[in-house]
Design brief:
It is built from 22 helices and 17 strands. The longest helix has 31 residues, at 158-188. With 687 residues, the chain is of the alpha+beta class. It comes from Eumeta variegata.
Length: 687
């Protein structure tokens, strides 16, 4: 190595640098002569300097244990390379004495040990590669994986190595396939839904019943509001616009806003500064719609249990709803602003809610002539009950009959049966449109809850959100309808910087004025697009389905009139509920992976740690602490002769891959030239 470095130094100078070599000693003083130097001796520097060539012309041989053999190999190889360069060998180096003097000077001179991190050494990356190669061999020889050690053993025949390699490869492929399938199942369907029959300890909540009148306005209140707002110069479409506000929804906004937007007097913000207050001023009050309510067979005051609520379908009244209004202008002192959820028990006499409606009685057997004279039909038994509301029988009958003729709704009410946490809106369809031909609606309940261990899964995996997992602005607990409602509010605010009045007042969301509803109409498709909302079902949700409708039997009543009441009840006591629980958790997944890997490969968790240790920590420490050993190993590997290769087309199972030629086999070693003996004339001194 030292000879190689010095020859590289001596042969890498250009023409200008050769002159500097003679002025400064390279190898130090000769042996045993003190500080004086023999001027008649020929220094190797003086012999080599005039004929220096770049070291790239010569690939010097590696060191050997014998100094004489080293010199001979250097001398022969230099002449051999010179012949290939078409140069005269005697013109390059003086003779054998020159080379011998170089070696002698290197032995006796105090030359510093060369650094290992040079071009020949390859640097730390080369040592790390050698260390990784060594650790790979060690890992295969000492691995705990089944069959791996038989592949790496040198004395094993090829057939046995190939057999064990095939078995190990098949096991590894099967392990990967099964693990990937388990991972996909864990990501897509890690939960299972089953029946929970432990129903005796349940507190079964009664659903919320939302009743939306197709014509919720009170004509008397409309006339009073028009006179109060516009006086005697009221616009022609004032009444129609006010009715439109009471049934305001995204559909009605897009369909009817163009009828009123161009009327400056109607859209005057000074006259109607708050649309929600305007709706409260003209809708029918609870006492003018409902009477004789019953809850679980006991009589209840209707206006204490039926409270107003603004929905995305218009103004409604709701029973047992958490999202109903907590304050309104005609609220009585007996009505509490605090919500108390209603439950039923198995021992209750009834599991139902009953209400009677005035609206359905007043439209019966009432007609109107052209000259506004009233004609009352033969069945007037229920009309007298209406006279206590609205200031007289004829006036009230005329009001409701006019609405019936103008819209043709005949007092139809849509009935929504839903969970108390939910709210009637675009996500829910009405269970029934009550046209007074049905007196009883029986429904069933499907309640689904999720166990707490499902929290370890992501929302995408379990496909549901726990009530306290995501904080919403529209509700203190998460539900699908609340999430969608908040999404539409955000879209409405982003497009028009306001929201319609049927949404609850929330900080940061301004209520739209009348003119701004035109902007809502322009973007109604984008606002109601469900693909813009990233909402999941709630982990606890309840679905109510109508199972039975009992039609009214007119023959059982005197006069054959239509029913005035509607009863909503459970079809039967809920016997089961659905439970969603984890099928594959993280621990189950780890056990499954370990079982499959152990079955096919004998793999364990410590085997993985061992693999990481061999190829990271151990390889790096060996490259740092055992660098000399790795260099010797690398040198031995490079000096090892390459195995002979049989390039014949005879299969190996018919003839072993060993050359059978009678010609001698020439083995060439890496970085070592072939043996070469120079002619005798090359040892003569140059003149």
């Amino acid at each position: 190595m030292l000879l190689r470095n010095k020859l590289q130094q001596l042969t890498s100078f250009d023409t200008e640098q050769r002159a500097m070599i003679a002025k400064k000693p390279i190898f130090g003083e000769r042996h045993g002569t003190g500080s004086s130097r023999n001027s008649h001796s020929t220094h190797p520097r003086d012999a080599l300097a005039p004929y220096a060539f770049p070291i790239s012309y010569f690939v010097l041989p590696r060191e050997t244990n014998s100094g004489s053999g080293h010199i001979d190999s250097c001398y022969s190889y230099i002449n051999h390379r010179a012949q290939k360069l078409l140069l005269e060998p005697s013109a390059l180096f003086y003779k054998e004495k020159v080379v011998r003097s170089i070696v002698w000077a290197m032995r006796v001179s105090p030359i510093a040990k060369p650094r290992h991190n040079n071009l020949d050494d390859g640097g730390s990356f080369s040592l790390l590669a050698t260390s990784l190669r060594h650790q790979t061999t060690e890992f295969f020889n000492n691995s705990t994986l089944h069959g791996v050690r038989y592949i790496a053993e040198k004395d094993r025949p090829f057939c046995e190595k190939f057999m064990w390699f095939s078995f190990t490869a098949v096991g590894a492929v099967a392990t990967c396939i099964i693990i990937v399938s388990l991972w996909e199942k864990f990501q897509t369907n890690p939960t299972i839904t089953g029946l929970d029959t432990d129903f005796h300890n349940w507190d079964v909540p009664f659903p919320a019943v939302t009743i939306c009148d197709m014509e919720p306005v009170d004509e008397e209140l409309i006339q009073e509001y028009i006179e109060k707002t516009w006086g005697s110069s009221a616009p022609t479409d004032a009444a129609s616009m006010l009715r439109w506000l009471t049934t305001l929804s995204y559909h009605s906004i897009a369909e009817h806003v163009h009828k009123f937007i161009n009327d400056q007097d109607l859209m005057d913000e000074k006259r109607i500064p708050n649309t929600k207050d305007a709706v409260f001023s003209i809708v029918s009050h609870c006492e003018s719609l409902f009477y004789d309510c019953e809850w679980k067979g006991e009589s209840e005051e209707c206006c204490d249990v039926m409270v107003p609520v603004f929905t995305e379908m218009g103004f409604c009244y709701a029973f047992n709803s958490k999202h109903a209004e907590r304050a309104w202008p005609w609220q009585s002192q007996s009505q509490s602003e605090q919500f108390n959820e209603a439950f039923i028990h198995e021992t209750d006499a009834k599991w139902s809610f009953v209400y009677n409606s005035y609206r359905n009685e007043t439209v019966m057997d009432v007609s109107m002539k052209k000259d506004t004279d009233l004609k009352i039909g033969p069945t007037v038994r229920n009309v007298t009950a209406q006279s206590v509301h609205g200031g007289g029988l004829c006036r009230v009958c005329l009001t409701y009959r006019q609405k019936r003729e103008s819209n043709g709704n005949d007092g139809v009410m849509t009935v929504y049966i839903h969970s108390t946490e939910e709210m009637a809106g675009l996500e829910l369809s009405p269970q029934h449109s009550w046209d007074r031909r049905v007196e009883k609606v029986a429904f069933s309940v499907k309640h689904t809850y999720t166990t707490e261990d499902a929290r370890q899964l992501s929302v995408r995996q379990r496909r549901c959100v726990f009530p306290d997992e995501h904080r919403l602005e529209t509700s203190p607990y998460y539900t699908y309808s609340a999430c969608m409602r908040q999404c539409r509010m955000r879209l409405s605010r982003s497009f028009c910087d306001c929201v319609p009045h049927f949404y609850p007042p929330i900080e940061g969301y301004r209520q739209c004025m009348l003119r701004e509803l035109a902007c809502i109409a322009r973007h109604v498709q984008a606002i109601t697009d469900v693909t813009r909302c990233d909402c999941e079902l709630g982990c606890t949700h309840t679905v109510y389905e109508v199972e039975k409708l009992t039609e009214f039997d007119a023959t059982k009543t005197a006069g054959g009139g239509l029913p005035t009441s509607l009863e909503t009840e459970f079809v039967s006591w809920p016997m089961v509920r659905y439970k969603r629980e984890v099928l594959f958790g993280w621990v189950d997944l780890l056990v499954s992976f370990g079982g499959i890997a152990g079955l096919f490969l004998g793999f364990s968790l410590l085997s993985g740690v061992e693999m990481i240790y061999y190829f990271t920590l151990r390889a790096w420490c060996a490259a740092v602490r055992d660098a000399d050993t790795l260099r010797r190993e690398r040198a031995e590997r490079r000096a090892r002769p390459k195995p002979p290769h049989d390039l014949s087309l005879v299969p190996w199972w018919r003839r072993p891959p060993v050359p059978r030629s009678s010609r001698p086999l020439v083995v060439r070693e890496r970085d070592r030239p072939p043996k070469y003996s120079p002619p005798p004339g090359y040892t003569v001194f140059l003149p």
